[in-house]
Write a structure and sequence with these properties.
It comes from Candidatus Komeilibacteria bacterium CG_4_10_14_0_8_um_filter_37_78. InterPro entries: CenC_carb-bd, ConA-like_dom_sf, LamG-like, LVIVD. This is LamG-like jellyroll fold domain-containing protein. The protein has five domains: about 150 residues, no CATH class; about 150 residues, Jelly Rolls; about 160 residues, Jelly Rolls (Sandwich), CATH 2.60.120; about 190 residues, Jelly Rolls, CATH 2.60.120; about 260 residues, Neuraminidase. It is about 5% helix and about 45% strand. It is built from five helices and 77 strands. The strands form 18 sheets. Strands 1, 10, 11, 70, 71, 72, 75, 76 and 77 form a nine-stranded antiparallel beta sheet that branches. Strands 15, 32, 33, 35, 40, 41, 42 and 44 form an eight-stranded antiparallel beta sheet that branches. A seven-stranded antiparallel beta sheet has the order 31-34-43-36-37-38-39, with no helix packed on it. The longest helix is centred in the first third of the chain and has 22 residues. The chain is globular and about 125 Å long. The chain starts with a strand and ends with a strand. About 45% of the residues are buried.
């Protein structure tokens, strides 16, 4: 940062006029004696009124020197009880005189001329009006008005526009450095403070097929298909890999449909002809292809000739005949507009090559024809996922499964025929992305025509014994109608090698049903129509069959095993590289068909590891760079520093409490420790600079034993075991909270968390597990907005932007995740994650989840939420949270802090920048100061426009200042801070 020139708030003419008025007034006063003596000397009430007005104006000037922000808009009186002038009340009674000081906003036009109304607000200029009124006779008042414009002319700016110099500068000296920043912060670009890229989300799909009709993929088998490569000069151009033939025609180059060139054929006289020919284009027999090209010109007639090596010719209906045949190109084109011609066909079973000719016939001289992008594409069964594992209809395109009306748009219909050379199926060639060895989900919609007898109806398999044991995974329907999900740990069959799970319910014929098999590294699960239908423990992994087994849809064992073929329709097939949760399976069932972008509402957080605490965890709280842990059944709180290594933070030590600690929350330099008894239910601690040295300064007696604690702004909420939440105000004295009352919950509360206008209370009940309250109007008397259930009772709850986390208290060992971004009054379940041990509380910081463990493990399990928060498979993502703390800046003297401002770029609605500041008389004192926002401790400045720093926040008369900027990203984009500025008056 750097100091800038002093701000000039009004014009020179305005200053001269104001100075002249003031000089005349001062000249009328003969000295500096008291007002009573002045009144006696002057002998007139008006003179006294003038003196009171001048005194008021000078008082306002002195207040300005204390801090421009002290001059708050409105009507005021004055006080000098503290030995200096300050605003007090709305008027002064000075004997028979009443003095009212009005501070008003000033507006200017584009030329900076002051306007009576309209224009733009000038925050550095204020209109001061001092009105003296007195009674001259009953019912008759006299007035004296003194007005002047005051400006913030003595102020300076501390600004920073570059952070690329790096961290480590404790006190300000180099203007592109700072004190510290998270690893998620990017400072490398001059003039930008942003979030680092977090890499690319892995696609959850190894395969995603909608079966929505024929699709084609270019085989790159036609050489020089866009005529980019050629030699010669018109009219004798030779195009590589093509044979040009003509009778009265010239060849030249025409600008292409997409590329730089196309072939142009100009016909010189009537009945002239000419075209291009390419021989021996490789194809596969019994395979469906599509030939397409672009054409324009004005030639009278042009045609296409296609034949194979046995001189069987393609007809316009897609079949081949031994009789010579040409096909008229019947698309509409002009001299100015390209048109695309396409024809689909299936090659004969023994075909290996095709020969293609495209030519034109002229009826008159001057006609011409242009051709471009001649492409031969093979029919595929299209994979919508990012890996593009396209399949092929078998046993051949003519006899393979057919597209029919499906559950969603179209589906493939499989005939179920037996035999190794018949029976419909789709072959997806082996690929690395299909070699799934860890979590997996197999998913499809099926409508069986029949189940068969003694055979399976395969749906999705990577399961082969051709030339060895190459079994990996399979989802099928048994003859008894049960859904079977099978995995092999080593590729072999039999007990100890292959593990199968059958559904409890049966699959029906003649009906569309959603079927899913899931493996999450610990158990296998099957689902029908969104409902769990069975599970079993399994942790042996999945065998990597590599290229030895393809993925088959509708068949198994390389299509060589008995009569195991699917008979009926299959739609919406997917292989997912993650294990869907119960919630996600139900979501897929309810919201099919989905796309790669929206199918996964969230990515389950990635487990990082566990770091040890001094004892088991009872409660946790994160504030800035510190994690505070109330230790279970112990009288102490442990503190961890998250700034350098949030995944395995070092412990700073513990501070002792009077009673057993159950939970903890911070408020500036205050700790509020929840105990295991009602009186005192809360112990209050304070520290100067080192939180480990916190000392007890008070307690709070509660109505019942507490269960959870949260502070939002200045309001303290305590969840109680008697089905209620008690509410306190920490302002003005955090050591002596003021009770605001309590509100009832529908069941025993176990914890509480606040986000925005809503309180989320976890309850000791699985049916009524989470109750939401609207606290926007009255925090002690809120309105209940919703009640949600959970898989079991809940121990703890915490909220962050868009997400709510519940930690269960039973054997499931789960953290349940809810969406509160769309409708915070009604949380919507997204999914869950499995934790290492019994969980007691949960805290979040940026992209990390910290789960306090209270079972046999005394520690904290860490999860990374980066991809969960970012969403969107296959996209380049950014970190979602980061902070930077500035160096300490010395203003040089006790100063008034006036305004804060910054410029920013927020590419997405979810991107945000928030700022806090702290001040102190000395540099050393900053460590004991609290981070403060617009409305005090635990709040932020959230708007980059010039914003007043309220005097009530206690910064004025301090000398040292620093700022903390927090960046919140959408994951897909990053907010960018371009510059930051503090306006102050030394």
């Amino acid at each position: 940062m750097k100091q800038r020139e002093k701000n000039l708030g009004f014009s020179l003419i305005e200053a001269i006029v104001a100075l002249g008025v003031f000089s005349l007034l001062v000249a009328s006063i003969s000295g500096t004696a008291g007002l009573t003596f002045l009144s006696e000397i002057q002998g007139g009430e008006r003179t006294v009124a003038q003196a009171y007005a001048v005194e008021g104006m000078e008082a306002i000037r002195s207040i300005r020197e204390l801090g421009w922000s002290e001059l708050t808009i409105g009507q005021h009186g004055l006080s000098k009880e503290q030995g200096y002038w300050e605003l007090s009340g709305s008027e002064d009674i000075l004997g028979q005189f009443t003095r009212t000081i009005t501070i008003a906003e000033v507006y200017r036009d584009v030329d900076q001329t002051i306007l009576a109304e309209g224009g733009s607000l000038d925050q550095h200029t204020k209109l001061i009006s001092v009105l003296i009124s007195w009674e001259i006779s009953p019912g008759n008042d006299n007035e004296f008005l003194l007005e002047n414009y005051l400006t913030n002319w003595a102020s300076l700016d501390w600004s920073q526009t570059n952070w690329s110099g790096g961290a480590g500068q404790a006190s300000w000296s180099i203007d592109n450095q700072f004190w510290t920043a998270d690893e998620s912060i990017d400072v490398n670009t001059v003039g930008e403070l942003s979030l680092n890229q977090a890499g690319t989300n892995p696609s959850p799909y190894a395969l995603l097929m909608h079966f929505d009709g024929s699709r084609y993929q270019s085989q790159d088998s036609i050489d020089n298909y866009s005529f980019e490569n050629y030699l010669g000069i018109a009219p004798n151009i030779d195009f590589d890999d093509w044979t040009e033939y003509q009778l009265g025609a010239d060849f030249s180059v025409e600008p292409g449909y997409q590329g730089s060139s196309a072939v142009r054929i100009d016909y010189q006289w009537p009945l002239a002809l000419g075209g291009v020919y390419q021989a021996a284009i490789p194809v596969v027999g019994d395979t469906t292809y599509q030939l397409s090209f672009f054409v324009k010109g004005n030639v009278a007639y042009n045609d296409l000739i296609v034949h194979d090596e046995d001189n069987y010719y393609l007809r316009s209906n897609g079949s081949f005949t031994w009789w010579f045949t040409d096909i008229a190109i019947d698309v509409f084109y002009t001299e100015n507009d390209w048109a695309q011609y396409t024809i689909s066909f299936t090659t004969r079973s023994n075909a290996s090559y095709l020969y293609i000719t495209i030519n034109g016939w002229a009826m008159d001289s001057g006609q011409w024809l242009a051709l471009d992008n001649i492409v031969l594409s093979q029919e595929i069964v299209y994979d919508e996922g990012s890996y593009q594992n396209h399949g092929f209809k078998k046993p051949n395109d003519d006899a393979g499964p057919e597209y029919v009306t499906g559950q969603f748009d179209q589906a493939l219909d499989f005939d179920g025929a037996g035999g190794s050379t018949s029976g419909d199926y789709v072959l997806v060639p082996a690929a690395d992305s299909l070699n799934v060895t860890g979590p997996i989900t197999l998913e499809a919609w099926i409508n069986p025509d029949s189940l068969g007898s003694g055979i399976e109806r395969p749906i999705i398999t990577k399961w082969s014994d051709a030339g060895g044991d190459w079994r990996s995974y399979s989802l099928s329907v048994l003859a008894n109608g049960k859904l079977r999900f099978s995995l092999s740990s080593d590729g072999e069959s039999g007990n100890g090698h292959t593990y199968s799970l059958d559904s409890s319910e049966q699959i029906e014929t003649g009906e569309w049903q959603h079927v899913v098999g899931v493996y999450d590294n610990t158990e296998m699960r099957v689902y029908i129509n969104g409902e769990p239908e069975g599970s079993q423990a399994y942790d042996q992994g999945i065998f990597d069959s590599g290229t030895n087994a393809d993925v088959l849809i509708g068949s198994t064992y390389n299509n060589l095993y008995n009569d195991n073929r699917f008979n009926g329709q299959i739609d919406e097939v997917s292989i997912e590289l993650i294990a869907l949760t119960d919630t996600q399976v139900e979501d897929h069932y309810s919201n099919s068909p989905l796309t790669p972008e929206d199918v996964i509402v969230w990515f389950a957080p990635t487990p990082i590891g566990v770091f040890m605490a001094d004892k088991k965890v009872a409660g946790m709280h994160v504030n800035s760079s510190y994690l505070y842990i109330a230790l279970l059944d112990k009288k102490r709180v442990e503190i961890f520093d998250l700034s350098s290594n949030p995944e395995n933070p070092p412990s700073l030590g513990v501070f002792n409490t009077i009673n057993k600690s159950e939970d903890v929350f911070t408020y500036g330099n205050y700790f509020y420790v929840m105990t295991d008894i009602a009186s005192p239910g809360i112990e209050i601690y304070y520290y100067d600079s080192n939180p480990i040295e916190a000392i007890s300064i008070g307690t709070i007696n509660l109505n019942d034993q507490p269960a959870g604690i949260w502070i939002d702004g200045d309001i303290l909420y305590v969840a109680l075991n008697d089905d209620s939440v008690q509410v306190f105000d920490l302002n003005p004295d955090p050591a002596v909270p003021i009770s605001l009352g309590d509100f009832a919950t529908t069941n025993t509360a176990t914890d509480i968390s606040i986000y925005g206008d809503y309180a989320y209370v976890s309850l000791d009940d699985d049916v009524e597990a989470l109750q939401t309250f609207d606290i926007s109007i009255d925090p002690a008397n809120p309105t209940s907005t919703s009640i949600a259930s959970a898989i079991e009772e809940v121990n703890g709850v915490t909220a962050m932007e868009d997400y709510l986390f519940l930690i269960t208290k039973g054997t499931s060992r789960k953290v349940l995740v809810y969406n509160i971004g769309d409708e915070p009054a009604i949380p919507v379940a997204l999914g869950d994650l499995t934790i290492f041990d019994n969980g007691w509380d949960i805290a979040v910081r940026g992209s990390y989840i910290y789960v306090g463990l209270g079972g046999s493990t005394k520690g904290v399990q860490v999860f990374d939420m980066t991809f969960m928060l970012a969403g969107g498979s296959g996209d380049t993502n950014f970190e979602v949270y980061g902070t930077l703390e500035s160096s300490a800046f010395d203003t040089g003297n006790a100063s008034g802090f006036n305004f804060i401002s910054w410029s920013e770029t927020l590419p997405a609605p979810e991107d945000n920048i928030k700022v806090q500041i702290k001040t102190a008389p000395t540099e050393a004192g900053l460590s004991a100061s609290s981070w403060v926002g617009l409305s005090g401790i635990n709040t932020y400045y959230e708007v980059g426009n010039e914003t007043i720093i309220y005097p009530s926040n206690g910064h004025n008369e301090d000398r040292w200042i620093k700022y903390l900027v927090s960046l919140y990203g959408s994951g897909d984009t990053s907010p960018i801070l371009h510059d930051f500025k503090i306006n102050y008056t030394p």
